[in-house]
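User: Please predict structures.

Assistant: First:
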Amino acid sequence: MPQSAHEEYRGRLDRVREQMERTGVDCLLVGPSTDLLYLTGLEARQSERMKILMVPRDGEPRFVIPAFELPHLEALPPLFEAAPWEDGDQPAELLASLLPRNGKAATVAVGAQLHTHFTLRIQDAAPDARYVSGEAVLEAARMRKTPYEVATLRAASEAADRVFEQLIELPIEGRSERDVLAEIRRLLVANGHDALTGGGIVGFGANGASPHHHASERRAAAGDAAVVDYGGVLGGYHSDTTRTFHLGAPSDEFRTVYEIVAEANDAAVAAAGPGVTAEQVDRVARGVIERAGYGERFLHRTGHGIGLDGHEAPYLVAGDTTVLEEGMTFSIEPGVYLDGRFGVRIEDIVVVTADGVDRLNRSTHELMVV
């Protein structure tokens, strides 16, 4: 990290508490999840044993954790105090005793990734508290990335770009979608990703017209369009990119559709920036495709936030009125999908800057013919 881990996580905790103040939340409960990773740096495994970080608006955070797991906390920034419990104890009652005013008339925000059976036990142990969703606290904090987070996302995107550049130098014709996906996954690791996300999309020909196609044994042939959508994890943060290329000479219609999608991507990038809403960016990308006559074949939202999760707020879709702010990171990925024929999608990750956005993916948008 460019600064000490203590300073980075202290800043995140302060940001969460600022949001708690704005929303009238007295304390926040976070279980094993990317929310917990965001606040502490701990990658904790969910189990039947309660592990919950309790963050009060005022006072020291407490981590309710099985006593034999205390060594897991030793390397973390010293921003909270452990509240250990032994097998046979009632951890929900322990947690309830730590809530502000023992939970009486307290507003308790519950992280969206906290398992329901723990939430129900806490509600039974502290029935006088008011329980609300933690999304208003956590999403607002996590959407605005720190410089460290942006730098890590940039490194992940640059690595994903290298994967595409290397992929199109390989012989593709005759290889199956599953084989090419396996090659992409190998290249992700070779280019610095330390973990792989599930799935990934490779669609040849008509299979590319399904936005979430599952890779099959379908083999690439001359005349096919190819859609590849992939990503992984580098330093805890996700990459995600989509490129479309062609095997052999493309048809005039394919070239036209490709140019429309590339224009929609550029228009959305140009429209995004501080003060613009997420749905406005979607509207701009969709408008380009609608005016070209393919509006009904743009089958999904324009983009999604990205960070410790591959998909997180904000979402570039009608109805998401989130006002974009400096430090927010998200995909811009318009597409056109023609059933039985081909699909085209171009996806870049961008970060909101003081006066617009900066693309984190820089691999070419030029139509590549292999």
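Second:
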Amino acid sequence: MDIGCATGNFIATHPEIIEGVEVDEDSLKICQERGLRVKKLDVDKEMKSLPSDYYGGVYAKQIIEHLDSPPDFLQEIKRILKPSGRAIILTPNCPYALKKYFWQDPTYKHLLTRQDLESLVAKAGFSQIKIEEDFRCFLGLGRLMRLFRIKPEVVRLIQKKLGIRGVILDFGA
């Protein structure tokens, strides 16, 4: 399950086994035009409509920081995952996410540190918690990397020096 799937790029990697949910109508339309299995769902209000113990995996990229209640979101992920299921959550890594820019997006509701995320995931009852940092992608980064033949490791190093980091949560049920 890709939660907050946007235009379905993650789903498109394995459309035979991945489905998604999204609230944005334009993104849903693009997913449907691409023939992807998606449905409209407001994660803050309708996660309970998803089946319990059903998904082998959950992927949620850049969504937890936008939600009303990250703890409730993690509890719902726990509920919909099969007992052996696994979840991957990507989010900005505060305080390294350049707080000034973070709060310029009015849809952000929570500034979460690595420690906050670790605590939330543990309280939700997950085990096998793994937290890693990654580099942040932004519009045009891929083009710049190709144009100047910059390797991902170099981008990661530059962003680390500038304090631009994301967090990847990887945990099991």
